[in-house]
Amino acid sequence: MRFLSNIAAAILLACAACAACIAEAADNTLLIQLQKDGSYLVWHSEGRTQLSDDELTSLSASARPEGGEPILTTAGPASAFEIPRAVLVVLADAKSDRKLLIDRDACGGVRLWHAEGATSLTDDQLTELVLSALPDGGKRVSIGSNYAKAYSTELGVVAVIWAPVERPKPR
């Protein structure tokens, strides 16, 4: 019986470690876009500007290539521009995080990308992620003391960065 309770405890510990790893990865997800001049434009999954689902839906519906009519949001007036495979939202009066990118994942879920975020990588690290990207995820790459995995998408390279989780030492 004690053996089964040890196995159950090990499974719960593993699930908690996975949940922590997933939560950490969600805070460190980037969209990397290569620009015409060879530089990178980096979008962050987390940022200061938080809009409701209703606001994002209204902005997406109002998007036009030349920019839709401004819509008043909780972050101030916003205009939405229809761009290939996404919607660019510009918040003219915001002090920071003035641009947001709205796209959809493979399952149709809405993803919101912020112009500003906490994660900052060097050009060499961004290049390594871009070069390692594959549709189903490239090889694991070391980024300082963290790891990253990059996925190529129609919109750019999505990189997930996480801190390694120490495994319990066997007794």
What would you say this structure looks like, in words?
The protein is of the alpha+beta class. It has helices spanning 2-27, 53-62, 123-132, and strands spanning 29-34, 40-44, 71-73, 76-83, 86-91, 99-104, 110-114, 141-143, 146-152, 157-162. It has three helices and ten strands. A hairpin with a 2-residue loop joins strand 4 (76-83) and strand 5. It is elongated, with a radius of gyration of 19 Å.
Layout of helices and strands:
Elements: H1 2-27, E1 29-34, E2 40-44, H2 53-62, E3 71-73, E4 76-83, E5 86-91, E6 99-104, E7 110-114, H3 123-132, E8 141-143, E9 146-152, E10 157-162
Antiparallel strand pairs: 1-2, 1-10, 3-4, 4-5, 5-6, 6-7, 8-9, 9-10
Keywords:
disordered N terminus, 171 residues, alpha+beta, 10 strands, 27% helix, five-stranded antiparallel beta sheet, 3 helices
Placed side by side, the strands forming the largest sheet appear as 2-1-10-9-8
- Structural class per helix/strand content? alpha+beta
Rg from C-alpha positions? 19 Å
Mean pLDDT: 84
What oligomeric arrangement do these chains adopt? single chain
Q: Compute the number of helices.
A: 3
Proportion of strand residues: 25-35%
Q: Give the total of beta strands.
A: 10
**Global shape:** elongated
Q: What is the succession of H and E elements?
A: HEEHEEEEEHEEE
* Largest sheet descriptor: 5 strands, antiparallel
Approximately how much helix is present in the residues? 25-40%
Distance from first to last alpha carbon: 19 Å
